[in-house]
Write a structure and sequence with these properties.
Strand content: 25-35%
Structural class: alpha+beta
Number of domains: 2
Number of strands: 16
Largest sheet: 5 strands, antiparallel
Shape: globular
Distance between the termini: 24 Å
Radius of gyration: 19 Å
Order of helices and strands: EEEEEHHEEEHHHEEEEHEEEE
Length: 283
Amino acid sequence: MSDSSQWKGYLISYSNDSLLLQSPYIHNDCTVYGPDSDSTTMAVAGIQYLQNQGHHITAIHLTESIDAKVIFMSTSVDSPQRNDELPTATVDWQVIEGEEATLVLSQSDAKHFEFDEPTGTEIMDDDLFNDMNAAWEHECSKQHVSQGAYVSQSQYLEGGTARLSLASQSFEGQIIWPPRQMDSSGNRLPREEGLLSDTATVESWTKLSAAGAPSEFSLRAPILGGIQTLLVKFDEGPRGVFLVCDDVDYSPTIGDQVEFGVRRIYAQEGLIRYGLKAIPSLN
């Protein structure tokens, strides 16, 4: 018997310390990823769910389609795909990727799984599916030149942990996020030592039209009907601005509670850049 529910925008079924994750979207009778999801974002959500259930995961075997660096920055879980010096014997978890948009996360010695079929699927519009996939394919092409602000791969990776895991600093009784190297007086600040809570409160919001969206979203904003952003405040004090997940039908109001999931943000130099996006809390 398994427990079925939703987690960070995905359908899940949890049984005997193993987890099935599935995209909620169906197109032409096949399970497909949402507009800003892929196997990497789903794997992050799966690891976070298992951690939330009390599992201590230090390393995991990943499939080729999953970005091991993003997994590590988001969850602190290592993998042989990222660290070739990692002893195989220490990797006691695995990701199994289905033919469609499904993943199973389990201990490495698990051979048999029994899951209830997740409920809550919905049909993805044919135009949305085709147009969004074409836009991502074009954006991920190495020939595509983004008109947005240039962020090198090294810069992206340098700030990745704070951006993807909400790692924060504590200094003189205050929580600082995103982390900084120095304060306003030039004093060096300590390294990140904690994580912000995974929920925050909406303080204001903005809906940018397709024409007014930042240029790095120029291919996808017209398909989505614009880009929505939220200014939120965490319980620990810091504030931040986040995009709303592309597949969420959400009209925000001040005071709403939101949580965060790793999603695709944009592509540059043929590489997908990932970040946190806001998802309205189910509770």
